[in-house]
Design goal:
Largest sheet: 4 strands, antiparallel
Number of helices: 3
Helix content: under 10%
Strand content: 35-45%
Structural class: mainly beta
CATH topology: Methylamine Dehydrogenase, Chain H
Length: 366
């Protein structure tokens, strides 16, 4: 792991001790290290080791979006792979979500697909490089696009009949959208990339956009991830650490000074045991309301760069990695409970022999 310079916290921000007090109100103190670690890679069935998204649908199926190998799907009995031969617009799959009718939708580097349980069909935004999709409480689909130079970027909303687009001309903070999120109040938030420089975060209330950036207290303008905690505070994972925004305009910061293994934060999760997890470029960090603990490739992870985190129905934690190096990466699984057979052992019982595919070479599309 490369050493990172520590981020100095401005004195005008709320103190770290105050932030810890707020976090303790909804996290459960005490460590629980009874779980064991398992790995899934191309060596035992994944179509590609670069993992971009992990998702479990209402049927309990686990979907794995890869950058270069399409989709891997495990339904508890068998393992399947889907790619461009099955209708995907691209083998670079960035996000998988389910609508309230049970239909699966897939964001790819070349547009949007939906799944009819046998094949993937085109669902709009062809040619758009999509990174993130969500369904809001009304059932509308929101899609964030990046690669503004080649595909135009922007944010798109689909109500089932027509598409609505948002751009910087209509208040969107930037054209390259890394993350889309709906909060408990029905507001839509976006995190931006803008060629790695970022344009902050935007909040849309259905009529107007409110933009927050470094001048307001955001620790860095390039925002990869976000979530809302049980007390209504918004958390933003950036390439410079984490910003926590309280609705009374108070900002908090979480960095390596506080216990993060790395300040580049790509994904975040509060699990069912009320522990907070942060996927970073240097490994994954966990906070339990009192103590920090980090896990890296030196002890349990397949790779340090954690791009996606999923907690499945059994309480197991899945960490998808994306090391940018051909042949490396895969999924690490942390199990709290010990069964007679491991997850990887159960999956391997159903894997066909011809599933493993080669990883991309350095000169291939990324």
């Amino acid at each position: 792991m490369k050493k990172k310079s520590l981020v100095r916290q401005p004195t005008e921000l709320v103190s770290r001790s105050k932030l810890r007090e707020l976090m303790k109100r909804f996290l459960e103190e005490g460590e629980d290290d009874t779980f064991g670690w398992e790995s899934l890679t191309t060596k035992n069935g994944l179509p590609h080791n670069w993992i971009y998204d992990l998702y479990q649908d209402t049927k309990g199926r686990i979907w794995v979006g890869t950058w270069g190998g399409g989709i891997a799907l495990y339904d508890g009995k068998e393992w399947k792979t889907f790619n461009e031969d099955h209708g995907l617009l691209s083998n670079e799959v960035t996000c998988i979500r389910e609508d309230r009718k049970g239909k699966i939708w897939v964001a790819t580097d070349s547009g949007l697909n939906s799944f009819d349980e046998t094949r993937f069909v085109e669902a709009g935004l062809n040619g758009k490089s999509l990174l993130n999709i969500i369904f809001d409480r009304q059932g509308n689909l929101w899609a964030g696009c990046w690669r503004a130079m080649s595909s135009g970027g922007g944010l798109f909303k689909f109500d089932g009949e027509r598409w609505q687009s948002f751009s910087t001309r209509t208040g969107l903070p930037g054209l390259e959208i890394l993350k889309v999120f709906e909060d408990s109040g029905g507001n839509i938030w976006v995190g931006t990339y803008e060629h790695g420089e970022g344009a902050g975060v935007g909040c849309y209330d259905g009529k107007n956009w409110q933009v927050y950036n470094e001048s307001d207290g955001l620790i860095n303008n390039c925002v990869y991830s976000m979530f809302e905690d049980p007390e209504g505070k918004m958390w933003f994972g950036t390439v410079g650490g984490i910003s926590v925004f309280e609705r009374k305009k108070k900002w908090y910061r979480v960095t390596m000074l506080d216990g993060l293994i790395d300040d580049r934060v790509y994904c975040m999760l509060i699990d069912s045991k009320k522990k907070m997890w942060f996927g970073t470029e240097g490994g994954v960090s966990r906070y339990d309301g009192e103590n920090w603990k980090s896990f890296t490739a030196e002890d349990c992870l397949v790779e340090n760069l954690v791009r996606a985190i999923l907690e499945d129905r059994e309480g197991n934690l899945w960490f998808g990695t994306y090391p940018y190096e051909p042949g490396r990466g895969g999924i690490s699984i942390a199990k709290y409970s010990r069964g007679t057979k491991s997850i990887s052992e159960r999956i391997l019982l159903y894997l066909p022999d011809d599933l493993t595919q080669k990883s991309l070479g350095p000169g291939e599309k990324k």
